[in-house]
Design a protein that fits this description.
By secondary structure, the chain is mainly alpha-helical. It is built from eleven helices and two strands, in the order ααααααααββααα.
């Protein structure tokens, strides 16, 4: 099992930073890796469902995603997936599956919506990061969370409601070049993945545990 020093979260961050930094000065590489529904549909470049998460628009975009992943991912990986014995020896593989599938699944709605629009392209790991964050919220709903648009620390389940509501509103408004649909898809995937995986691998009822903690049923 991977140790804290060489955690999966750290490895993902290091690889993403290396690829993103190279792509900052290599437009061709960025263009070859980003999410481009029209190219996927026309040329069968399905690898783009995964590689887009390793390139970012600029340093701030990269920093925000990687700081968010480090803040939440390290905790989810170490304490919720491993030390809680939720997945036992399967914990590393489950965490990798959460992130990788989060990258893929979060773009599926945009793929079908934009596959006939050659001008639409997207990049960044935010869909997978959302999957990790919401997986953590499902397992520990009162985990204190704060982000740029919410300057105070609030329980995770309240943050989740606010985040989804803001993402839906901003997605409908449009015009900011941010993949809000991918954020929502990633969040929903993180929730469903955690519920299903916990039930299959440990027979743990995530929904019941979530409701018990939120409603103080202990």
């Amino acid at each position: 099992m991977l140790t804290t020093t060489f955690s999966i979260t750290t490895i993902i961050i290091v690889v993403t930073c290396i690829v993103s930094f190279i792509a900052f000065s290599n437009a061709r590489l960025k263009n070859d890796l980003l999410f481009w529904p029209a190219e996927i549909d026309d040329r069968g470049q399905y690898y783009r469902f995964l590689t887009y998460g390793f390139v970012h628009g600029d340093f701030l975009h990269l920093a925000f995603n990687m700081m968010s992943l480090y803040s939440f991912g390290a905790y989810v990986e170490k304490y919720l997936y491993t030390q809680s014995h939720l997945f036992g020896h399967s914990a590393p593989m489950m965490y990798i599956s959460l992130y990788v599938l989060g990258l893929i699944v979060s773009t599926i709605p945009d793929y079908f919506y934009y596959k006939n629009y050659s001008s639409y392209r997207a990049l960044g790991a935010s869909g997978a990061v959302c999957a990790v964050i919401f997986s953590g919220i499902m397992l520990e709903p009162k985990l204190p969370i704060s982000m740029l648009f919410i300057p105070v620390r609030i329980p995770g389940y309240i943050f989740g409601v606010i985040f989804i509501a803001i993402s839906i509103w901003l997605g409908k408004r449009g015009g900011d070049n941010i993949g809000h649909r991918a954020h929502i898809s990633g969040a929903i995937f993180g929730i469903l993945f955690t519920i299903i995986a916990a039930k299959l691998f440990s027979n743990f009822d995530v929904v019941k545990s979530f409701l018990d903690e939120v409603l103080n049923r202990y």
